[in-house]
Amino acid sequence: MAKRDYYEVLGVDKTATLDEIKKAYRKLAIANHPDRNQGDKAAEDRFKEATEAYDVLSDEKKRQMYDQFGFAGVDGGSGPRDYSNVYRDFSDIFGSGFGGGFEDIFSSFFGGGGRTSRAHRGPEAGSSLRYDIEIDFKDAIFGTKVEISYSHQVACDVCGGSGSESSKGMKTCPTCHGSGQVSRGGGFFTIASTCPTCSGNGQIIENPCQSCHGTGLKRKQQKVKVTVPAGVDTGSRVVLRGMGDAGPNGGASGDLYVYINVRPHRYFIRQGDNLFVQIPISITQAALGAEIMVPTIDGKKIKLNIPSGTQHGKMLRLRQYGATRLNSTDRGDMYVKIDIQVPKRLNSKAKKLMQELSDALGESTEPNPVSFED
Predict the structure, then answer these.
(1) pLDDT digits over 145-157, tens only?
(2) What whole-number percentage of the chain has pLDDT above 70?
(3) What is 269-360's CATH number, 1.10.357.10, 2.60.260.20, 2.40.240.10, 1.20.1050.10?
(4) Which of 15, 66, 107, 334 gets the most CB atoms within 10 Å of its CB?
(5) Helix, strand, coil % in the chain, rounded to nearest 5
(6) How many CB atoms lie within 10 A of CB 78?
(7) Average pLDDT, stretch 168-190?
(8) Inter-residue contact 203 to 249 (CB < 8 Å)
């Protein structure tokens, strides 16, 4: 079954605020909570669907990617989805008035994220980044290299990414005693939330690095040359693997996605791999036929045969003078649209010749009797 739009799932508008999204999710989660609907598969599915929608729409970056690219922008492959922001926001959304064991339910439904898995968090993948560039029309046809400068997180050069200033490294968190969670409430209701001291790791750094403040990461401005292949168009992207943010706890770096916007050309229009250009010719060239020189995107001119009797708007094709096909040396075609130019001013000799031509063709100066009525 096809996925429903995340905004539709939560019943909110696309302009909804984070507070409105939280309220909508809270209402759905309470109504479809497994403790209240034991054995109800439909309620379980609605609960999972609402949680997935909230996970995306409550995260600014994920929401931006979803708004721009749909499900393709937030589906990160076949592995389990990371619901960490749902766990972080749980106590904020539900306060102290909801049943306990909620994170265990998430863990059983979605994989990972329960009490045990959060106790000692290992390396995590870094975030991928987006960078937009604008290139000339011709560069998109034939390819180019563009140098960009961007900011990303890298492993701290002082502590080597460990976050620790000394070799003592980690110690058990004194707040949660290594569980990664703290509980509050009492009686019937108990809420387990992420430990604020260790952020769910279960351990803390004994002597945090003064340079990176214990994060193991620093922000760095970096220049890199991006090779733009021939045949790209607006919306195409170049992926630079491992050039995104470095991952926490020694995790792999994310990727850098360079999105391309192509400036329009003054004369050429592109449709797929084909190029279109409009070329003016005279009445006599159209009537008698001619050979003319037309410009190409390559920067050179080639000979084009105009057949006698060519009509205004006729398309003539020049094979292999279009855009380069992506990941190929082959090219599309160039289409030349004929624009017959009618002279606005005629001297007496030209008028006489035009009149003689009109007489020879038997043309009438009377209104055209053709009717467009049915």
Answers:
(1) 999 999 999 999 9
(2) 81
(3) 2.60.260.20
(4) 334
(5) 30, 25, 45
(6) 5
(7) 76
(8) no
